[in-house]
Amino acid sequence: MFTDRRLTEAYENARVEEFDDHSKYVFMSDVHRGDGSLSDEFTRNRDIYLYALQHYYRNDYTYVEAGDGDEMLEYSNFEHTKNAHPAVYDTIKKFFDEDRLVKIYGNHDIFLKYPSFVKKNYYTNYDEYNEVFFDFLKGLEPVEALVLKHKQTGQEILTVHGHQGDAPNDQFWRLTMLSLKYFWRFLHAFGIRNPSSPVKNVNKRHKVEKNYNKWIEKHNMMLICGHTHRFKYPKKKDHPYFNTGCCIYPTIITAIEIKNGMVQLVRWKVKATRNGVLNIEREIMRGPEPISDFDIREGYAGAEN
Length: 305
Description:
By secondary structure, this protein is α/β, with parallel strands linked by helices. Helix content is about 30%, strand content about 25%. The protein is built from seven helices and 13 strands. The strands form three sheets. The protein has a six-stranded mixed β-sheet. A hairpin with a 5-residue loop joins strand 7 and strand 8 (about 155-160). Helix 1 packs across helix 7 and helix 2 (about 45-60) packs parallel to helix 4 (about 85-95).
């Protein structure tokens, strides 16, 4: 019940953007960029993520970061995070400067909902070499939700982080923040997870996903989110629930792509050649399939599948 209300609120207040069969979007979530220390889980996949991000920039995609891009519950000083990953933020700025960045906030970067925090931390950055401040993501306006609406068919796709209605990570996020900041972050270096997260808690993850599917069935709409860290691409007869997965699997990151009216799930991974050279490769896991196949409004193509 609470998940339904929270997702509906997010939908009603979402940023709406029209798209067509020539549009290109890539959706990633749960990057969890940290301060570069031992507990920063992002560092092991930083090169893969940067390589993928540069690919999407060169190929004219709009980058939708669907929440938890920056790890703020564990690392309170965002200046340290920006300084730890300069090449990554330089690439993100390129998307922003060309109006190809949509930044959605999740439970781990929920401070992005406060304009004063965004202005203080994202509008400028510091060049340590030249010892000067410069415009960074000046004017950035993070959102809780994005609705893509097809220009011709009117089909809508809702994108949120996915923590909506997950009590410890939604209405009680401040308590979770304290436990992460002063306890669980130090155990992450040894692979021990916070039980309030759905990442390793199978029962909790299934409950969250069940609530997503209930909302999809009630509102007849395709949903893209993250939060659980489990990538998902629906099979035939399933509800159109897509999950981006995350960017902190060991040596692998996953993403949802929309291109030329098609949708697919991809992963980027490190692969060794016969000669022992390590390459970063993109692999299609599911799809591509027409987005219209996932239009479940009564009388439309997806409703008949």
